[in-house]
Amino acid sequence: MTSLDSFAASFSSARPKMRALMARLPAGRLRLVLLPALTFLAILVVWELATRVFHIPSYVLPAPSRIAGGFDSIPFGRWVEHVWATLRVALMGYAISIAIALPIAIGLTKSETLSACLYPLLVVIQSTPVVAIAPIIIVVLGAEDAPRVVITCLIAFFPLVVSTTTGLMATPPELVELSRSLRAPIHREFTQIRIPYAIPYIFSALKISITLSVIGAVVAEFVAAEKGIGYYIQFSTSLFKLPEAWAGLGILMVMSLGLFQLVALTQKIFFPWSLPK
Amino acid sequence: MREAPDAIAFKGLGQIFKTDSGSVEALRDVNFAVKRHEFVAVLGPSGCGKSTLLRCIAGLLAPTSGSVDVFGLPVTEPRDDIGIVFQKPTLLPWANVEDNVVFPIKHKTGKVNHEHRASAREMLKMVGLEGFEKRMPAELSGGMQQRVGIARALLLNPDILLMDEPFSALDALTREEMGFELLRIWQASPKTVLFITHSINEAVLLADRVLVMTGRPGSVLCDLQVPIERPRSIETTSSKVMHDFSGQLRSLLLKRAA
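ok -> structure tokens follow
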């Protein structure tokens, strides 16, 4: 909001006419939606004009109108199948990542021995290029969803472990002492103090990981799949159908953005106190 | 009849911390006792082991040598009759004021009933926060947050209240105001208070006795009765006797440092 306002302010101070135009725009939230929407529209118009004026071939950069046409290349039902294939793998990978990452993070916080054993291993997993290991996983686990979900997990779970552990450790030591001075059972130190304290950290990781999950699913489809948006993009490019590939990319972007907003909304509704002021 | 045991008694307490770069002697041969319902201030420079003393009484830290007795029994684990107020209020940001005050019960037993909530509201009334029960901690000033911290420590009606520089994070005016508030609360509900501070004026205004500590290793330099009658008020702060006594403590602390 502030960066946008200052951007608008610098813009408008430079040009009095622009300022008059800005003043006529509605204030507040509507403006927050309207300004980026108009910017996006302007980019599309320039893009469309540029491709026509300079006769840019569609395999280099297809015009937005050609990309829109790309959506018609297969029936709507096929699109739904592709979207569902990718979404399913991304969400399963995401859910499993969360289910793995939270207990690991609690373990790392609770036991120094476990931390010493596991942490180097986690770093090794994280530093292995997932794109390189993906073909191996596909061969080992077969052609179903399982290998794709595993690949997604490998990409998505690391930020969750690191961020959640940081959050669990960031609890004020006084509250841990309060817990000990009350001789409360150890599980309540986690459920009532440490985990709630880690919520802001967990949600920043959840936001990163949801987009990583989509990336993971697409990477897996690039290696081996017969369905999914990633598969569709690769299939289209292999036939030099670039507008269709761009259409697939557009869908992936919408999917990522939508999932990200869903996570952000969950935090806003259920944990409003955890958002920065 | 046998005399009632002291509320707190340090018997040759020593504490040595082992760190990667060797061991640090935090406390050496600490001997003093606090009677029931006495208000004792522990005054000393930073790093003289004041907080370590407090953690030994609370049963959060086992002494390396010697012992601490609470009501005649050596402390081996945390007790139910001790409340702690920390330097920072450390409230739960996701819980409202009332939920923060009942938190020790919820944390200890797993559930909270109407009686607990009623006594939480009573405590909030006592610390001057009636009507703020449903507010969130972020909506309160630093002084109000620390009042919630005090109400939380008083909830289980402890015999002993341990306060670890509770007002040091507040601005000077609020700090003075909170000192008088604490005196009012202490008179309304008498408790044994061990109050850790590095402010001479605060120690003199609040306490019956002041223990002056020196650091590295921390030990008690002297144990002085405060020669000021109760009840104390704003006038006390400008009285000659307070001025003289504060001066005496100041020269003790500075001479030691020099």
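Chain B has a mean pLDDT of 89.
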